[in-house]
Amino acid sequence: MIRSDKRLKLLYAVTDQFTLFIIFTGVNLIFRGNDFVSQDYLFFITLSLIWIYLTSRNKVYFLHLHNTIKYRLRNHIKNHLQFMAVLSLLYILLGVPIYTRIHFATFLAAFFVADSLINYLVYLSVGRLRRKGKNIRKALIAGAGRTGVLIDEYFASTPELGYKIIGFMDDNPKEGELQKRILGPISQIGMVLKETEIDEVFIALPTHLSDTIHFVVEKADYYGIRVRLIPDYTSLLGKQYKTTNFGNIPVINIREISLDRLRLAFLKQVFDFVFSLFVIILLAPLLLVLAIIIRVESAGPVFYCPIRLGQGGRPFKVYKFRSMFQNDAASGGKMSTRKDDTRITRVGKIIRKYSLDELPQFFNVLKGEMSVVGPRPHRIFLNQVMQKEVDHYMIRHYLKPGITGWAQVNGWRGPTDTEEQKCKRTAHDLWYVENWTPFLDVKILYLTIFGEKTFKTAF
Fold it and tell me: What is the pLDDT of residues 339-362, one digit of tens each?
């Protein structure tokens, strides 16, 4: 730990202990006046030792000295919750006769509020000092590529985190403003570390340069300088990845999406169920009328139930109102719908234009086979074609197919005959998969009903 960090760690520790003492004394004065006994001092010492143990165990004062307020706050709250839990357990098991439950609860609540506020004020004060160049870490970046530049820009935009990038080491620097900050090729990093005051080295080199990475680590170790490795996975894996662990084994999840989080997936599932149930109940009279009209106008079933591929490529039966005299085969059909298609019935033209033929799919949503919003399910034959012709097409099957989708509200519905139609529809679907939010679903539902592009290509 560098000297400035030791001082900062001591500042936070002393601040917490002082706050603990003030709140403990203040609450005692409120509830018991000046009636202090030896048991009070013993209890305070116990509180202090428990707090020191928990902050040490959670590394509150060291690991997060150079992180954002959000990260620090989360760790601070976690520590307080553990503190409350331990004290409550001791209070229940051992009992402290001189403190009532209200007295005890008031102390816990007051310490949490006061300590959080004072820590925040200290954080702001430290941030102000760091902007003036005090309590900072001087860092060197090995690699002036995209990742190295991002690190530099991040710390330049957040000076309160306490990092000052003094320059880069790079063998092939690009022309531009960055060249002025290149201190030399990576082979000379040993000389720079020897002659310049450096606290940390950030390695921002492509992962295939393993020999160069080892060389930088060895030089930093020789001079006793800490190293942080930031692998440049973006060029290899794209932006949608997340690092996790299987035990002690680091694992990279490629194409991690927001709906992989359980709470967000649960939120979308609940919304799908509630919204679909509401629509079915609300539109039940319309569904009945459409079923009667379809049955009266032409011979055949009310519903057309083709087989489509759902989430994970699993086949399922889609419910649609029949809109044609003669439908394509339920499975393996190859006949796309075209403009002025003679197979479409009179009522079919109307319900297809306004997507009323898709309304029965709300029953698919209730069954858990589809979502209200998501990539539209394609015919199996078209799926096979698109899989071969469009890069990353099958990634759209990460999610459940939807009744409406981002591609549809942007005008990419209907035929997929041209390369542009195939690529644009897929690109919109993939964008939705990677950028899903609850608010995006609400926006798509709004555009499905009121958007001009939604209906312009329907036939």
Answer: 666 778 888 888 887 888 889 999
Q: 405 CB contacts (<8 Å, ≥6 apart)?
A: 373, 374, 375, 376, 428, 429, 432, 444
Alpha-helical runs (H) found in 173-241: 189-195, 210-222, 234-237
**Which amino acid is present at 170?**
D
- Contact between 167 and 182 under an 8 Å Cβ cutoff? The reply is yes
Which domains, ranges and CATH numbers included, belong to the chain? 3-131 (no CATH), 137-237 (3.40.50.720), 262-456 (no CATH)
Q: What b/e sequence results for 388-404 when a residue is b if at least 16 CB atoms lie within 10 Å of its CB, and e otherwise?
A: eebeebebbbbbbbbbb
Q: What helix, strand, coil percent values describe the chain, rounded to 5?
A: 60, 10, 30
Interatomic CA distance for residues 112 and 79, integer angstroms: 10
Distance CA 432, CA 436 (A): 5
Strand partners, 164: 138
Q: Strand 249-254 and strand 315-317: pairing?
A: unpaired
Q: What is the pLDDT of residues 60-114, one digit of tens each?
A: 876 555 567 777 788 888 889 999 898 888 777 776 666 778 888 898 899 999 9
Q: Within the chain, what is the greatest distance between any pair of CA atoms?
A: 96
For the chain, the straight-line distance linking the first and the last C-alpha, in angstroms and rounded, comes to: 69
Burial 299-308 (b: 16+ CB within 10 A, else e): eeeebbebbb
Strands 200-203 and 226-229: parallel
Give buried/exposed letters for 1-23 (b at 16+ CB in 10 A, else e).
eeebbeebbebbbeebeebbeeb
**Confidence band for 336, pLDDT divided at 50, 70 and 90:** low
| Phi then psi dihedrals of residue 208, to 5 deg | -75, -10
* Nearest of 296, 308, 289 to residue 351 by alpha carbon: 289
Integer angstrom CA distances of residue 83 from 22, 99, 316: 17, 18, 52
Query: Are β-strands 163-169 and 182-184 bridged in parallel, bridged antiparallel, or unpaired?
Result: parallel
CB 359 within 8 A of CB 287: yes
Q: How many CA atoms lie within 13 A of 276 on its CB side?
A: 25
Q: Which amino acid appears at position 278 of this protein?
A: F
Of 130, 138, 132, nearest to 197 (Cα)?
A: 138
